[in-house]
Amino acid sequence: MSELVAELASGERRPLARLLTRIENGDAALRPQLQELFGAGRGAHVVGITGPPGSGKSTLVNALIGEWRRRGRRVGILAVDPSSPYTRGAILGDRIRMMEHAADRDVFMRSMASRGELGGLAATTWIAAAALDAAGYDPVLIETVGAGQSEVEIARLAETTVVVEVPEMGDEVQAIKAGLLEVADIVAVNKGDRPGADRAARQLRAMMSTAGGRVERTPPKIMVTTATSGDGVAELADAVEAHREQARSPVAARGRAANQVRRALADLAATRAREHPAWDQTVQEVADRELDPFTAAERLMEGVG
Q: Do the domain assignments include residue 280?
C-alpha cells in the first residue's frame, strides 16, 4: 500500500484535503497513482443531486446528510459551484447551507469550481469521488451546479441520479423536455409544503410513465420532500438505498466505465494536442479561416500518441 492510499485509509481528513487540492489543480504527478487510488475504493454509493437553480438542492443535501448520519454512515459531499467565465473563480457557497455538519468528523464536504466545464460538473469530479470512496465515505453525494435542462453529465458519473424539482416548474411541456428529467433515477419534488406539490408529483408520474425516456429504462420514482422540515427525506434516503443494487448491474457499471474512459481519453487527447508543435500555427489558421476545425483537429491528432 502506497503512502497516499495508507493516509486515506487512516481516516485523517488533512491528507484527503491535500489530495483533493492536487486533483483539482491537475497535478500530473498523481497520474501514476490513479490506478492504485481506484483500486483502493471500498464500493461507495455515488449519488448525484441535480436540478434547476432555486429548487433547494443544497438544503436537501443537508437534510440527507443528517438522515444518513443518524443511520451511522460516513458521508462525503462534493458541491460543484459555477465559475466565472472570465476569472474562472467561484464563490464556492453551496456548502454554506450545510454548515451544521461542518464539525462532524464523519462528514467531509468539499466545494469544487466548475472551471468552465459544461454539464454541471468539474473535469476532476470523478477522480475526487474516487478519493472520497478510498477514504471510506459512503455514500458520496455530488451536487451539481444547477444549470437547467442540459445538465446531464452527472448521469454518466453517478450510480443514482436524483433530480430535484419544485411545484412551480412550469407547464407540462417544459417539465417533460428531453434532458434533465430523462437522466433521473429518482425525482424529488421539493418544497412540498407549497401549494401544488402533490399535483406536480402526480403529473410527473403520469408523464414519465408514458414518455419512455432512455431505452430499456424504467420510469423514475417520483417523491415529494420538504427539505426545511425533513418531511419525505427519510423516504428519499430509502429510495436511494433501494436503487443501489439496480445501479450496480453489469450493464450499468460497464456504461459508467465507458463514459469515464471516454472522458479521460478526451482530456488526454486535448492536453497532448496543445503540446503539438503546430498548435499555435493551426489555431491561427482556423482563426484566419484558412483551415476548418475538423481538419485542424486531424492534423493535431497526428501528434497524439
A: yes
Same domain, 66 and 104: yes
pLDDT, block means (10 residues), the chain with 305 residues:
82 90 86 86 92 86 96 94 54 61 89 61 81 95 71 80 81 51 87 90 80 62 94 97 91 86 83 89 95 91 65
Residues 180 and 288 in one domain: no
Shared domain check, 139 and 282: no
- Torsion angle, alpha carbons of 74, 245, 150, 201, to 10: -90
203 lies in a domain? Answer: yes
Give all strands (DSSP E) within 144-300, no chain letters: 160-165, 186-189, 221-224
In a domain, 132, yes or no: yes
Task: Kindly give the pairing relationship between strand 140-143 and strand 107-113.
Answer: unpaired
Contacts of 22 (CB under 8 A, 6+ apart): 29, 30
Let me know if residue 252 belongs to a domain: no
Buried-exposed string 191-212: b where 16+ CB fall within 10 A, e elsewhere: bbeeeebeebbebbeebbeeee
Neighbour count for residue 296 (Cβ, 10 Å): 19
pLDDT at 218: 76
Q: What is the pLDDT of residue 135?
A: 94
Please check whether residue 90 is in contact with residue 113, taking contact to mean a CB–CB distance below 8 angstroms.
yes
Range of the domain at 289: 259-301
Whole-angstrom Cα distance, residue 23 to residue 133? Answer: 14
Read off the CATH number of the domain in which 88 is found: 3.40.50.300
Q: What is the pTM of this model?
A: 0.84
